[in-house]
Design brief:
3-stranded antiparallel β-sheet, 7 helices
Length: 208
């Protein structure tokens, strides 16, 4: 999980994104007017993971004017722009995420996260892969064994959505933010209560 500080101008965005890529990207050049996948992967801290790269791009350019943002998108290489058009993240309110979110989809949800610290009222599970010898299987484990979990609430609609990040990092502050990640499915056992079907596995965030 990483906090992103959005670019404040189109010029700053282009300078950062048109960066030449990593040292082994010998076919890309900095400041050549074209942003390649390798260059976007570098600033996103990713290795060609398009979901992460496009989440970063949307968050990092969220403060730009529409003309400046259009200029940045137009600078993407043709194949990268085509992938972005097909795979760009969905932007949701809390209620929209509850109603329209789909597992494996990259998404950005706006709201204020509030940490969930009571296991007695929270009994959701997730599937994780387990390797035993040469055999792979899936095991259902409590989500709170793997993640710090937050509720992001829509007070007007009376709904909330779950956001989570891996344990071992600082908890999110309770301020309004844009929360970006990949939607994952939740499981319930016979004793579970509640109606959450999935959660957002957090990768990046910005403070609104």
């Amino acid at each position: 999980m990483q906090e992103i500080v959005p670019y404040q101008s189109g010029e700053a965005a282009l300078e950062a994104l048109d960066n030449g890529g990593r040292f082994y990207n010998i076919f890309t050049a900095a400041s050549d007017g074209e942003i390649t996948a390798a260059e976007l992967a570098k600033v996103a801290g990713s290795f060609m993971d398009f979901q992460r790269m496009f989440l970063y791009l949307d968050l990092a350019t969220e403060h730009l004017s529409e003309p400046d943002r259009a200029t940045v998108v137009a600078a993407l290489s043709a194949d990268l722009r085509q992938s972005y058009d097909l795979e760009r993240p969905r932007h949701f309110t809390v209620s929209e995420a509850c109603d329209h979110g789909v597992p494996a989809q990259s998404a950005i949800v706006a709201g204020t996260p509030r940490h969930v610290d009571s296991r007695t009222r929270f009994s959701y599970f997730m599937m994780i892969p387990v390797q035993t010898g040469n055999v792979s299987s899936m095991m259902m484990v409590p989500i709170m064994d793997q993640y710090d979990v937050y509720e992001v609430r829509d007070e007007a609609q009376g709904t909330d959505y779950l956001v989570a990040h891996g344990r071992g990092v600082d908890r999110l502050p309770e301020v309004r933010m844009q929360l970006a990640g990949v939607i994952k499915e939740l499981q319930q056992n016979d004793e579970s209560t509640g109606d959450h079907r999935h959660f957002l596995d957090l990768i990046y965030y910005t403070r609104s």
